[in-house]
């Protein structure tokens, strides 16, 4: 694994630990979880939109056809997740 992949894996472990802690909090105190998940979903949507080839997000020269198809499939998924998480955060 590359150094960056290990850092990403550690970040996901840290988020998972934060989620487990957040689940022990009362429902009204879980805004921090919505914030973290909203930021993650927004960034994931942008990365997948970049892989899908959406104009204005730059061009990655090594994205394969399968990578582009994954971006097309998951960019809307993460966009919807970001919107729903924002709704949860704002309430």
Topology of this structure?
Layout lengths: L2 H20 L8 H22 L12 H26 L1
The total of beta strands comes to 0
Distance between the termini: 40 Å
Order of helices and strands: HHH
**Overall SS class:** mainly alpha
Largest sheet properties: none
Describe the overall structure.
The chain is mainly alpha-helical and 91 residues long. It has a domain at 30-91. It contains three helices and no strands. α2 runs antiparallel to α3. It is flat and about 45 Å long. 12% of the residues are buried.
Label this structure with key terms.
91 residues; mainly alpha; 75% helix
Give a short synopsis of this structure.
The protein has 91 residues and is mainly α.
């Amino acid at each position: 694994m590359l150094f960056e992949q290990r850092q990403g894996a550690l970040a996901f472990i840290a988020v998972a630990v934060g989620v487990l802690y957040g689940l022990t909090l009362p429902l009204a105190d879980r805004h921090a979880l919505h914030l973290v998940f909203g930021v993650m979903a927004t960034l994931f949507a942008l990365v997948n939109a970049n892989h899908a080839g959406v104009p204005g997000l730059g061009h990655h020269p090594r994205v394969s056809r399968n990578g582009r198809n994954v971006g097309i499939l998951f960019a809307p998924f993460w966009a919807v997740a970001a919107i729903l998480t924002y709704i949860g955060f704002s309430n």
